[in-house]
Amino acid sequence: MSQQAEQVKTSMGGCDHNDESLTRNEKLVVDVLSREDGPMKAYELLAALKDKGVKAPMTVYRALDRLEAKGLVHKLDGINAFVICNHDEPHRVQIFLICTNCSHVEEVREHDVANLDWNTISKLGDPIGFKAEATRIEVRGTCAKCQET
């Protein structure tokens, strides 16, 4: 089993991709994303799932929406793509390092970033009465592998 597949299994409470709480289409999307080394766009997922009988884009989008709500998948707004969540615990702060050359994505754990925790971020809106619910930070740059070439 790949490292990402193991992480998905852990984040699903130790369940495998056949977890009964996931629909067939959700399981298919998780399986494809967990085998990828990087983010995938919805239409790339659709192409990868055509041989499994998934033909409509809305089928993929619905599965992605539900997986995101369950915390198993993250949408990267800046590149309009999706990745498997690499955390095994709930988190409100999502931080991603995205390589602009090869599109490799690393998810940074909230507690690995000093002074950037949910309590700090959620209070940013207090002066104007804004109630924060979650945040996603996307940092673009060049990964170590691309810097070597």
UniProtKB/TrEMBL annotation:
Gene3D superfamilies: 3.30.1490.190, Winged helix-like DNA-binding domain superfamily/Winged helix DNA-binding domain
Example of a GO cellular component annotation carried by this entry: cytosol
Keyword rRNA-binding listed: no
Binding residues annotated for Zn(2+), in chain numbering: C99, C102, C143, C146
Sequence ranges of Polar residues compositional bias: 1-10
GO biological process, one term: negative regulation of DNA-templated transcription
Pfam families: FUR
Location of the region described as Disordered in the Swiss-Prot/TrEMBL record: 1-20
Family of the protein in this entry: Belongs to the Fur family.
Name of this chain's protein: Transcriptional repressor
